[in-house]
Amino acid sequence: MILYHTAQRAGKVLTFLRGELGLSSSLVKRLKWQNALLLDGAPVHTDRQVLPGQTLTVLLDEAAPDYPAEDGPLSILYEDEALLALDKPPGLLMHPSFHRNTGTLANFVAGYYARTGQRCAVHPVSRLDRDTFGVVLLAKNAHIHAALMAMQRAGQLQKTYEALTFGHPEPPAGLWDFSIGRREGVSLLREIRPDGKPARTAYETLETGNGWARLRLHPLTGRTHQLRLHCAHAGCPILGDSQYGTAHSQAMSAALDIFWQQLWAASLVLPHPADGRKLVLKSRLALPALP
After folding, report:
1. Pseudouridine synthase RsuA/RluA-like domain: from which residue to which, for each copy (predicted)?
2. Which residue in 71, 80, 129, 275 is the catalytic one?
């Protein structure tokens, strides 16, 4: 991705990078040692004086990640020079870890970038658990990623999930406001606790069946395992959730041949970080129909 800006005032390159172009200080420090800053086509440092009418160009190419780039299936929902939106299937990890360095979505995205000649890194904006499926948004460079994370903190990313649950919530629609903290002694799991971080989820019941319900969920905060914990705390754990489910919910899941959590990232609506136009990203996957 390349940024262009024609100066309307005089000033040093640094003031345009931090001001008009909105680059973070850490990104500016990295770019100035990569010959990624050009003034009227010639490399410059951040202390170069810019005159009105001159054009500043910023090359946002990034190095390949340090984990393997692999060929793997990707279901692309949207792509441009700044963003990549995918439909993640259940059972696929988002990114490599200390214990596993291959076979993740990030490995497949890195392979896709290599095959298509794109000098991009993998910057997840929305992260899904291994078994949660649906819309995943990735930024292609650090500048766009920083902009999207700021938008997310400001509540400009509207996420809609659907879930199949054991039982149904009472009342059938409302707002869950249950703080979440790390479970003591277990590094990955969380729990509802009064001294945790604030977590809010708007919910509504779309359908009920024989002991189950289909809910629409709108996370208003982005805590780890938030939707799974909120459903469980409200007495309607998500079917297939082996970590936060109950014996009864797991028994129903087994009876229905459900072996992963039925949580679907159905859509994501946001303003494009580059030009502000509205993006509506919809998953092509779906929750199964239950009897």
Report:
1. 83-233
2. 129
